[in-house]
Amino acid sequence: MASPTPEQEQLINEQTIGMLATLMRDGTPQLTPINYAYQDGRFLMSTTKERAKYHNIRRNATVSLAVAGDGWRPYVTVYGTAEIEEQDYTRIAEGTAAVASRMSDRPLPDNFADALRQQKRVLIVLTPERFVP
User: What is 43-65 written as a DSSP string?
Assistant: First the structure.
């Protein structure tokens, strides 16, 4: 697992949205803006099983995530391997809560884990192998 420079980590923690790149079945890249949380050296992202990125990652776990500051500089691109957590709803709820807390100060609903289960929500965990530039 690679680690960001202090400047890259500051940018990652300041921003809340990245551009996730996955590969479609025919090898074409798919880009998706996505909210994330950076915890313990890994990126957490929440999605549902209906989304293309879920199916793309299940086929090919190699992904990249670009995070940019205001304008297009500074920026960092993270290359790595994604894992999809779809069984452990405690982990899914905790990861999704971490992402949600970066998006809004609103409290989570009491039935948060149940709502995630109904939405068929999963947690994407990106383990970085390289940070560029």
Answer: EEEEEETTSHHHHHHHH--EEEE
Taking only the tens place, the pLDDT of each residue in 16-44 is: 999 999 999 999 999 999 999 999 999 99
Alpha carbon of residue 126 to chain centroid: 7
CA separation for the pair 71, 116 (Å, rounded): 34
Domain membership flag for residue 112? yes
Let me know if residue 120 belongs to a domain: yes
Whether residue 88 is contained in a domain is answered as yes
- What pLDDT sits at residue 63? 98
CB 128 within 8 A of CB 66: no
Which domain, by its residues, includes 86?
6-132
CATH number at residue 54: 2.30.110.10
- β-strand partners of 66: 19, 77
Distance (Å, whole) CA 25 – CA 23: 7
